[in-house]
Amino acid sequence: MREHRLRIGDRSVTLIAGPAGWGESSPFPGYPCSPVDARRAAQEAACDGWPAPVRDAVPVNALVESSPVDRAALAGFPAVKVKVGRGAMDDDVELVAAVRDAVGPRVALRVDANGTWDLETAAAMIRRLGPWDLELVEQPVAGLDELARLRRRIDVPLAADECVRSVGDARVLAALGAADAVVLKVQPLGGVRAALEVAEAAGVPALVTSMRETSIGIAAGLALAAALPELPYACGLAARMPGGDVVAEPLAPVHGHLRVRRVAPDPGLLACYEVTR
Questions:
Q1: 129-138 burial by CB neighbour count: b if 16+ within 10 A, else e?
Q2: How is 2-64 classified by DSSP, letter by letter?
Q3: What is the CATH code of the structural domain delimited by 51-264?
């Protein structure tokens, strides 16, 4: 097993090469992801490989974080996710309305508040956003208890993300009836197999998102999405790490889908970003 430590933009990235391929550990400050779990996910990818896929392509969503809305960038995606909860509520409403206008009525539209709303704000905002036909609201409030209470007050499906980081959390979600879906990220959950166990324990449909890794890390997310028994939602795997990639042919969506494949770093790009080996 060989380890390469890189610096890409403001991110520290560790790539591990092993008999099964390449893995990535790249948690970023301020996001709930244990470095131990991220390292475990990278070692799984490098040494053990991943479960056999049940699909060869994964639908992915586009991401909108601010105005103005770029209509061309959203074309061809089956779903769009809008980041909300970062500023004025009226601004969030205007942004969601603009995205719906840009993509039309047939594209699935979801919002992600990353747990920034309290219960009352979440309930009020979800009702205000109702006219734009939301498919899903990701992590509107911080905890599973609040999520369960909110779910009983509104009729838009809710997804749990940051509040589920273990099989135990997933079992609590199921017991409380806290969410309609669970969001899985490979690094925070400690690998593809661990994430599959979380999905099974949650007992609700799952979708996979990334932490804006390089294509090495996104390949792990693709492997997870490809191994799920059912995949009713588009996955958040289209956005790669800002600042660069280590793969000569990065994983990029075509007609709103990512083809499932293994990737390996280009030696020249690896040398460009490498700090120590």
A1: beebebbbbb
A2: EEEEEEETTEEEEEEEETTEEEEE---TTSS--HHHHHHHHHIIIII--PPPS-SEEEBEEEE
A3: 3.20.20.120
**What's the pTM value of the predicted model, to 2 decimals?**
0.96
Q: Which two tokens stand for residue 252?
A: 């990029």
Tell me the H-state helices in the chain: 35-43, 71-74, 89-103, 119-128, 144-151, 167-176, 186-189, 192-202, 215-227, 267-273
Cβ contact 56:83 at 8 Å = no
Helix (H) or strand (E) holding 252: none
Task: Extract the tokens encoding 257.
Answer: 């889908």
| Cα–Cα distance, 198 to 183 (Å, whole number) | 10
The per-residue pLDDT for range 101-127, each reduced to its tens digit, is 999 999 999 999 999 999 999 999 999
- The residues spanned by each domain of the chain are 51-264
Catalytically active residues are 83, 185
State which amino acid sits at residue 60: V
**Which of 102, 111, 108 lies closest to 81, judged by CA?**
111
In DSSP terms, 276 is beta-bridged to: 5
